[in-house]
Structure formats: structure tokens, C-alpha cells
Amino acid sequence: MSNNEQKPFLITADKLRKYYGEVKPVNDISLEIAQGQVLTLVGANGAGKTTLLNLLTGLIMPDRGEIRLLGEKITGVPPDQRAKRGIVKTFQLEHVFDEMTVFDNIRTACFSAAGKHYSLFKALDDEKEINERTDQLIELFDLAGVKHAFVKNLGHGYKKVIDIAMCFAMKPKILLVDEPTSGVGEEEKYKIMDLLMNQIEANNLAAIIVEHDLHLVKELSKETVVMCDGEFIARGTPEHVFSQEKVVEVLVGKGF
Predict the structure, then answer these.
(1) Is the whole-model pTM more than 0.85?
(2) Using CA atoms, how far apart are residues 164 and 178, in angstroms rounded to an integer?
(3) Are 27 and 231 in contact (CB under 8 A)?
(4) Which terminus of the chain is more exposed, N or C, with fewer CB under 10 A?
């Protein structure tokens, strides 16, 4: 029996469907992910990858199908409640506050995770536990050198890492990552992916990572799923998946 079969699935999607007229970005997809399991999701533009993530987070509702978290049905639960239960998503365009420092960005996420809010009547520096958690994340994601820098003055790669660190501040059970390396240079790609994968493993998280750089996927992914026209067409190790003729046909010209 495999490790995935020995423990309950963290999140389960059963025959999820989302149509927009004749367009079928998610067409009766079923998926099960256990704690510690990391899937890399690839496919051409329009394959349905982001739509699938948005269904899992509750940003959009399915036309049919069911989603369960640790066996509990959450299909109609709104995004903020799903985030509190541990389903956390990063975005293609990072969600950071340009006019705030790196420290204050991550501290804001730590406040949110703790169910606390800023108060005009209480000094933020008094929140020792929050500040310690913020400093811990800054160290884990190699941001100490820019801790007090305003985000607006930093490059795109730094913003990606800050966005990921803010997601970890939410203490996810399953992390959904949408193109973490888009728009960054080759060196930054590997740094971002190394930081991300190391922390996913260290925290024993489940994760789905949408990634467009297939060379990066080949090197770093253990389990890859290929999506085409709203359906999964292949799943397995990168070596197995990328050796299939139908996968090569779908991905040709897309960086394969």
C-alpha cells in the first residue's frame, strides 16, 4: 500500500464541471490529494488550470460536482472561509502592498491568520508573537536583506517571494500556486522554486503548482499532471508524462 493510500485524502474533487457557453475549462474532473502530496499542473493557455484552482478555492462555483476537505463537503463555502480552513492560493499577479515594507506586508498576513486586526489604540510592536512569526517567515524565505524596504522599490522576483511568504503566513494545509515563476529571469526562477518546494516539504503540505516552464517541471517535479481542454490527459513522473505522444502534441511550441 502506498503512503497516499495509508492516510485520508486532504482534499477531494468529484466530477467538477465549469462551462462558459461552448468553452469547457473544467470538464468533469476528479482529483484526490493527500497530505504531503505535491502535484505540478501543466498545459497550454486555456487548458483550464487556473479555473480548476479557482474552483478549489471557491473564487468561482462549479456548475456541478463536489469538493471535500478532510471528508467535509465545502462546495458552497466562500473563499475566506476556505482560506481559514487551510486552502490558500497564490496568484499569477502577486497580491502585495507596494506602499508598505516587506516586514509590514508579511505581518499583515500574520495578523489575518491569527484572526486579529490593526487597532489605532494598540501599538503593533506590542504584538510579540506576531512579530516573531513575521521575522521567522522573513528568514525562511531569504528576505532579511530587504526586510525594511518598501515593496514598490523591489523587483518582480522579490514580489513573488513575498506573496508566497504571505500565503505561508496563513498556515495552509493545501497550497495552490499559480505560475510562481512567470515574468522572472532564469536565476530567479530556480531560487523561487527552491524556496517554495523546500517550505512545502518542511511543512508537509499538500500542493498543486501550476507551472509553465516545462524544463523547470522536468527537473523539480515528482508528480506531473497534464491538462488539455478541461480534462486531465496524463499523470505520473515527468519522464513518464513527457514521453507520451499526445502530451508532446499538446505542448509542442509551449516550451517543451
Answers:
(1) yes
(2) 10
(3) yes
(4) N
User: Do 82 and 177 fall within a single domain?
Assistant: yes
Same domain, 176 and 256: yes
Q: What is the CA radius of gyration of the chain?
A: 19
Same domain, 23 and 53: yes
Considering the domain architecture, whether residues 208 and 236 belong to the same structural domain is answered as yes
Total domains, the chain: 2
Residues 203, 147, single domain; the answer is no
Range of the domain at 60: 1-86+172-256
Domain boundary among 129, 150, 171: 171
CB 101 within 8 A of CB 159: no
Task: Please identify, among 171, 191, 225, the residue that sits at the C-terminal boundary of a domain.
Answer: 171
73 and 177 fall within a common domain: yes
C-alpha cell at 93: 499577479
Contact 256, 53 (CB under 8 A): no
Cα dihedral 101→106→108→113 (10° resolution): 180
DSSP notation for 92-155: SS----TTSBHHHHHHHHHHHHTT----TTS-GGG-HHHHHHHHHHHHHTT-GGGTTSBGGGS-
What are the grid coordinates assigned to 202, written together?
518542511
For 61, which DSSP code?
-
Backbone angles phi, psi at 221, to 5 degrees: -85, 145
Q: Which residues contact 101 (CB under 8 A, 6 or more apart)?
A: 147, 148, 149, 150, 151
